[in-house]
Write a structure and sequence with these properties.
The protein is α/β, with parallel strands linked by helices. It has 7 helices and 33 strands. It has helices spanning 6-25, 345-357, 372-381, 400-417, 436-452, 539-553, 598-609, and strands spanning 35-38, 41-47, 95-98, 115-122, 132-137, 143-148, 151-157, 163-166, 176-183, 208-213, 217-226, 229-240, 248-253, 258-263, 269-275, 290-296, 299-305, 310-313, 316-319, 322-323, 326-331, 362-365, 384-388, 423-430, 457-463, 465-467, 470-475, 487-490, 507-508, 516-520, 559-562, 570-571, 584-585. The longest helix has 20 residues, at 6-25. The termini are far apart. Bound molecules: (2S,3S,4S,5R)-3,4,5-trihydroxy-6-oxo-oxane-2-carboxylic acid (GCB). Residues 197, 367, 430-431, 490, 520, 565, 585, 587 line the site of (2S,3S,4S,5R)-3,4,5-trihydroxy-6-oxo-oxane-2-carboxylic acid. (2S,3S,4S,5R)-3,4,5-trihydroxy-6-oxo-oxane-2-carboxylic acid binds at residues 197, 367, 430-431, 490, 520, 565, 585, 587. This is Beta-glucuronidase.
Length: 611
């Protein structure tokens, strides 16, 4: 029915490859302190399980055709007269709230995995004609194909990291329409893969913003303490625009009386090196944030940045050269207020308040990058953070695209959060089975991370095993342990591995001379279910697992902290036991409706007693 010539196809694919690269390389940081207009709120949506709005009846993508037919949803077409045949209409379709997942907003979409089209219309008057405008998505799960006023801007893969596209040349003062095809189908070769233990929420799950910038502007900067010299603040600033070579950028930190000028190179980048002997170091007890102001021409950008070092020293972890024990808890990004995917400041505040109440100085954000509110609040609250890439369980280790995807998602979270003092550990993966291709995959990720960010530690939640075949002695036998800075692993003695009393029979022989963090331990309990401590799912069983595990872990000489599994019960389609799980993983110390279980207090007492 439709013919398209090869040259057109070629140009379209070159163009979309370019735009994909663009999305990650031109990420605009610090959208909190820029001129933005929110596109949150009601969007029209169309559920499209057959992807009828994307492919024609020969299963050829409409977007590869010179004149996309009226069936292509991204054209947002309307009948021109009464004879016109158009079989969809965004404006007559129902609305859905952005940000938020579709699963908990629309009952009939609870388990839906597939394509949903989103459309938002808006007017926009630029404050200055020469200004540029970008559309910025904090996260869309999992694949987003983005179109603006009928033109493709690009696509983004990965459900938990931000991306932006420029729309300056396509923008009108009125009747703009932004269309996003959101597809959350799980795939074997994706990151994460088919199999996880969390809910695959679909949708535009975080904020959408229009960012207005000058023609040439400050796109990115990295301003952190030099781990090798605590009197030096180091990094770079990167400009964006056509006139960015050899330009002056002023950096001011008023409280340190620093006012400095750097000059950009041909690519608009300049190295930063600032000195002060009077830095008030950021720490868990003193989460001091400095106002940092960057100025380039008319463009002025502020941030609040903490300065601290994080290093390992033999078997210890040092924050500002002092040993610190990480009193942690693992957290999934679910809203403790509404249920469903968490996205708001209030969600983040509630989760981190609970962590504080538990006595934590550290949280593990599992198993994927959480929203930016979390790390910004952690900065203010003095909570250390482990951030994780969603390389989970059985990834397609041999697939080059899978690697690229994992690396890209990791780069995006590092880009977003590299100025947050709270973030101390980048985690490459969780519970991945050892094999040669997996070791290469993870080692390459670690190399990439170190090149992007030499100021933080690298880890991964590994698995433990029997020492020389003896199940009463446990060890870490994994060559990736040689690559990480901090040796972390999950262990479930007392839950998946025997009964709680088994903790008393196990000793640990960890041979690596590195700090050890237990990234997970725990047990399931239904809040309000009571019984003796050998009855599964009771609060008493879970409480006993905590008591026994804490005793057992004292036997690990290198132990520098832990993040038990998990702060709050969370949704997982793997958890089907009626009356107990009902779709929830019950290992939370707090139920999904905010009730604390007995084990909460065991851990709290332990943390309160530990300085
Ligand atoms: C694990 C996983 C975590 C699961 C947990 C469990 O080891 O890392 O994602 O939810 O166990 O509850 O089984």
């Amino acid at each position: 029915m439709f013919k398209i010539n090869r040259i057109t196809l070629f140009f379209i694919s070159v163009f979309s490859a370019f735009f994909q690269l663009n999305a990650q390389e031109n990420l605009i940081v610090n959208t909190y302190n820029r001129t933005v207009k929110s596109l949150n709120g009601d969007w029209n949506y169309i559920v499209d399980p057959y992807e009828n709005g994307f492919y024609n009846y020969r299963y050829e993508p409409f977007e590869n055709q010179e004149n996309p037919a009226n069936g292509a949803f991204f054209t947002n077409a309307k009948p021109k007269d009464k004879t016109d045949l158009i079989e969809y209409d965004f404006d007559l379709s129902d609305v859905i709230e952005v940000p938020s997942d579709w699963n908990t907003q629309k009952e009939n979409l609870y388990y839906y995995e597939g394509t949903v089209w989103y459309k938002k219309s808006f007017d926009f008057v630029k404050t200055n004609q020469t200004n540029r405008v970008f559309v910025y998505f904090e996260a869309v799960n999992y694949q987003a194909d983005v179109y603006f006023n009928g033109k493709k801007l690009g696509k983004h893969i990965g459900g938990f990291t931000p991306f932006n596209f420029e729309i300056t040349d396509l923008l009108k003062e009125s009747d703009n329409f932004l269309v996003v095809k959101v597809d959350n189908k799980r795939k074997k070769e994706a990151v994460p893969t088919l199999n996880t233990d969390w809910f695959n929420y679909g949708g535009i799950t975080r904020d959408v913003k229009l960012i207005e910038t000058s023609a040439n502007f400050i796109q990115d900067y990295f301003i952190q303490l030099n781990p090798e010299n605590k009197q030096q603040i180091k990094g770079f600033v990167q400009l964006n625009g056509t006139n960015i070579a050899n330009k002056e950028v002023f950096i001011t930190i008023p409280a340190l009386k620093i006012k400095t000028k750097v000059v950009t190179d041909a690519k608009g980048k300049a190295a930063i090196a600032l000195y002060s002997k009077k830095i008030n170091y950021w720490s868990t007890k003193n989460p001091y944030l400095y106002d940092v102001i960057l100025k380039f021409g008319d463009d002025e950008l502020k941030d609040q940045i903490g300065f601290r070092t994080i290093k390992t020293n033999g078997q210890e972890i040092h924050l500002n050269d002092s040993k610190i024990f990480l009193k942690g808890i693992s957290i999934h990004e679910e809203s403790p207020i509404r249920g469903g995917r968490g996205y708001s400041v209030e969600d983040a505040q509630q989760l981190l308040n609970w962590a504080k109440e538990l006595g934590c100085n550290y949280v593990r954000l599992a198993h994927y990058p959480h929203n930016e509110h979390m790390v910004r609040l952690a900065d203010k609250m003095g909570i250390l953070v482990w951030e994780e890439n969603p390389v989970y369980w059985t990834i397609a280790w041999d697939n080059k695209e899978t690697y690229k995807n994992a690396e890209n998602q990791l780069s995006e979270v590092i880009n977003r959060d590299k100025n947050r003092a709270s973030v101390i550990i980048w985690s490459m993966a969780n519970e991945t089975p050892t094999s040669e291709p997996r070791n290469i995959f993870l080692t390459n990720l670690a190399k990439h991370t170190r090149a992007l960010d030499p100021t933080r530690l690298i880890s991964a939640a590994l698995e433990q095993s029997n020492y020389q075949g003896d199940s009463s002695v446990r060890t870490i036998h994994d060559s990736f342990a040689d690559v990480v800075d901090v040796l972390s692993f999950n262990q479930y003695v007392g839950w998946y591995d025997g009964l709680p009393e088994k903790c008393g029979q196990i000793t640990w022989k960890i041979t690596q001379n590195k700090p050890v963090l237990i990234s997970e331990f725990g047990a399931g309990a239904k809040v309000g279910l009571h019984g003796d401590k050998l009855t599964r799912w009771t609060e008493e069983y879970q409480e006993d697992v905590y008591i026994q595990t804490l005793k057992m872990l004292e036997g690990i000489e290198q132990l520098q902290g832990f993040s038990p599994w998990i702060l709050v019960d969370f949704k997982s389609p793997r958890r089907v036991l009626p009356k107990i799980q009902d779709g929830y993983n019950r290992k939370g110390l707090i139920s999904e409706d905010g009730q604390k279980k007995k084990a909460f207090y065991v851990l709290k007492n332990f943390y309160d007693a530990k300085n």
